[in-house]
Design goal:
mainly alpha, 6 helices, elongated
Length: 165
């Protein structure tokens, strides 16, 4: 679905156009809180994001299967839809933003410790606030970068004009 198109009840993508999309950002929230919570909660946030990515990929495969009916090449088209969606979402929703927020928070905590006299709990909460506030700013550049990366590599392999995101 292209940008700027109106979404009607029938063509709303639950994984892209509803609150469900925010589940893809669970690991960034987890990374933001890493300094304050047990690491098991951070890994739990990755489980939520990975479940979201997998569910979206399965959904796009199902939609491709319905769209291509019994036509020749149906299996290939379904596989392309699943792989394209899973790889795009894994990179754009989990791996790259998780790494970005992790490093941003680690650097913030380190720099606050080296340059301020703030007590450790204040430094940890400040780091968490920095991580959370960065999330909205990193999403679009990462999404566009992953589009470029896949358009320049994986998508050339299956010569698929349409994106499954």
């Amino acid at each position: 679905m292209g940008h700027g198109q109106e979404k009607t009840g029938e063509n709303v993508d639950i994984y892209r156009d509803t609150w469900v999309r925010f589940l893809g950002y669970a690991n960034e929230v987890g990374e933001s809180f890493r300094a304050l919570v047990p690491v098991s909660l951070v890994w739990g946030s990755y489980a939520v994001s990975t479940a979201y990515v997998t569910a979206d990929a399965v959904d796009k495969g199902r939609k491709a299967a319905v769209a291509h009916g019994d036509n020749p090449g149906r299996t290939t088209r379904v596989a392309v839809a699943v792989v394209d969606t899973f790889v795009w979402q894994a990179l754009a929703s989990v791996i790259i933003p998780g790494f970005t927020i992790n490093r941003m928070c680690a650097a913030s905590l380190y720099l606050l410790g080296r340059t301020t006299k703030l007590p450790l709990p204040v430094r940890k909460w400040t780091t968490t606030a920095i991580g959370l506030s960065a999330i909205p700013f990193i999403i679009t550049p990462i999404d566009r970068s992953v589009d470029f990366l896949l358009d320049s590599s994986l998508r050339k392999l299956y010569n698929e004009g349409e994106k499954h995101k």
